[in-house]
Design brief:
about 200 residues; alpha+beta
Length: about 200
C-alpha cells in the first residue's frame, strides 16, 4: 500500500466519523424536542404550584393538597397553650392545698398548750360520764380546741382501770372530739388523755 492509498483510507475514515456524529446529534435533538427537559418541567411545576404530572417533588404534591399555600396552617392559641403547659386539675390543686392546711393546723394543735382540763379522780364511771359530757359541751361551745382529761391509771382499782376505759369509749363515740393521746409524764402520762376538739359547726 502506497502513500496515496493510505491518504484515501484516512479521508474515508474521516467521512464515516463525520456521518456518525451528524446522525447522533440529530437523534439527540429529536429526542430532546419530543421529551422536554425534566429540570425545566420541575422548575415550571414549582413556579405554578400545580402538579402537572406524577413526577413532581413531594413538596409540590403537599402544596397542591393544602390548596397551594403551605403557610396557611394556623394553630389554635388554646391548643398551643395546652401543648405547652398541659391541663391543670383545679380540683387536685384545691385538695392538695386543703391537705397542706390541714397538716399545718394539726401540727399547730399538737404543739399548743391545753386550754382547759378536768380531773375525774374519785368519781364513779356514771358520775365521770356526766361530768365529762358537761365539760366537753362547755369547751365546744366556747371554741376551745385542746383539753386534758385526768382519769388516773387505775392502780387502786380491783379490776381493770375503770375511768381510763370509760374516757376512751366516750372519746370514740362523741362527734365533738377528734384525735387524742397520752401526754408526757410530767402532765400525767398514761393517767391522763389529751383530746383535740373539732371546730364548731356553724348552722345557717
Amino acid at each position: 500500500m502506497n502513500f496515496g492509498d493510505i491518504l484515501d483510507a484516512w479521508e474515508q475514515e474521516q467521512k464515516d466519523a463525520s456521518k456518525k456524529t451528524s446522525k447522533s446529534t440529530g437523534q439527540e435533538w429529536r429526542n430532546k424536542k419530543a421529551q422536554p427537559d425534566s429540570a425545566a418541567n420541575e422548575s415550571g411545576s414549582k413556579n405554578s404550584g400545580v402538579k402537572t404530572d406524577g413526577a413532581g417533588p413531594a413538596s409540590v404534591k403537599k402544596n397542591v393538597k393544602s390548596g397551594g399555600n403551605t403557610n396557611d396552617t394556623r394553630i389554635n392559641p388554646m391548643t398551643e397553650w395546652l401543648r405547652r403547659y398541659g391541663v391543670v386539675d383545679k380540683d387536685a390543686v384545691a385538695e392538695k392545698a386543703a391537705e397542706n392546711e390541714k397538716q399545718k393546723d394539726r401540727a399547730w394543735l399538737l404543739d399548743m398548750p391545753y386550754e382547759a382540763q378536768i380531773d375525774l379522780h374519785g368519781l364513779t364511771a356514771d358520775e365521770a360520764t356526766v361530768r365529762l359530757d358537761q365539760f366537753v359541751g362547755e369547751c365546744y361551745k366556747r371554741g376551745i380546741r385542746k383539753i386534758l382529761i385526768i382519769h388516773g391509771k387505775g392502780n387502786h382499782s380491783e379490776d381493770a382501770p375503770v375511768l381510763s376505759g370509760m374516757v376512751r369509749s366516750f372519746i370514740e363515740r362523741d362527734y365533738r372530739l377528734g384525735e387524742s393521746g397520752h401526754p408526757d409524764k410530767k402532765d400525767g402520762g398514761k393517767g391522763a388523755t389529751w383530746v383535740i376538739l373539732r371546730e364548731k359547726t356553724v348552722l345557717g
